[in-house]
Structure formats: C-alpha cells, structure tokens
Amino acid sequence: MADNSSGNLTAELAELDFAAVSPEEFARTVKGLSPKQLGEVMHGELRSRVLSEVFGRMKQQFRPEAAGQLTALIRWKITGDSEVVYETSIDRGTCAVGEGRSEAEPRTTLVMGDAEFLKLVSGNGNPVTMFMMRKLKVVGDVGLAAGLTRYFDIPKA
C-alpha cells in the first residue's frame, strides 16, 4: 500500500497562510520534514508562495547593527523544478530584496536546491557543512557567504 503522507502534507501546506506563520513555526515545520518531503512540497504555486514569503520577510529579519557599513549584493539561485533567482542588496544598514536577476555584479552567489534553501533560511542547516557536502555552491566572496547568517535573525526550531 502506498504511503500517502506526502500528499496529505502537501495539501496541508497548500492551505497554510504563510503570512500568519511565525519564523519559529516555519523553522519547526521545516525541521520536521525530510529532504524528500521538502522537495515534494516545493512545486508549482506552493513553491512560489513559500519563496515569496521567505524573501519577503528577509528585510524584517535583517539586523542593520550587525551589517554596519557593509555593501554587498547577494544573488540566490534556487534550483528545483526550475531555477528561481532572488537578490538581497545590503547597503550600509539597509536591506532590499527583489525577485529576478539584475544587471549588477553580485559579491557572492549562493546556489542550492529547494530543500537546502529551506533548511538554510529556517536555521535547520549549517551553511559551512552544506558547502563542504556540496549541497550549497558559493560563487564569489566565500567569507561573506559564510557570515551571512549574522546579518539576519534566523529562527530556531
């Protein structure tokens, strides 16, 4: 008999109002799912909603006092059904986030799959470990990439 838990999980998540979910609740949800389940969730409209909400909250989670005078463009390439690109621009205490690839040259580009992205932004994945295990590819300033988590309030599950 087939296990239908993934289908039920996807249906449950599709009904979820992501705007009403706290970062901590999101982190707990991600922590409770296997990489396979995370991959199964990230399809179609649900994937777009999840990515939109995560990147939409990035400005709120930004810690300007930690960033100080840092100026950097971070490009995020999330692979999966299709490649999605977002950019985070940090400029001396401000943070802007946009969908799509700009003409500007990023200081660092992070490339990862859907499951790895969700683990990273929910505090359930260690970026250094992910890099060493080739689950996260970094192009450009590796030092900036390694320290990105200090510029944002990352939830704890």
UniProtKB/TrEMBL annotation:
Organism lineage: Bacteria, Bacillati, Actinomycetota, Actinomycetes, Kitasatosporales
Name of this protein: SCP2 sterol-binding domain-containing protein
Source organism superkingdom: Bacteria
Domain SCP2: 62-152
Pfam families assigned to the protein according to its UniProt record, in alphabetical order: SCP2
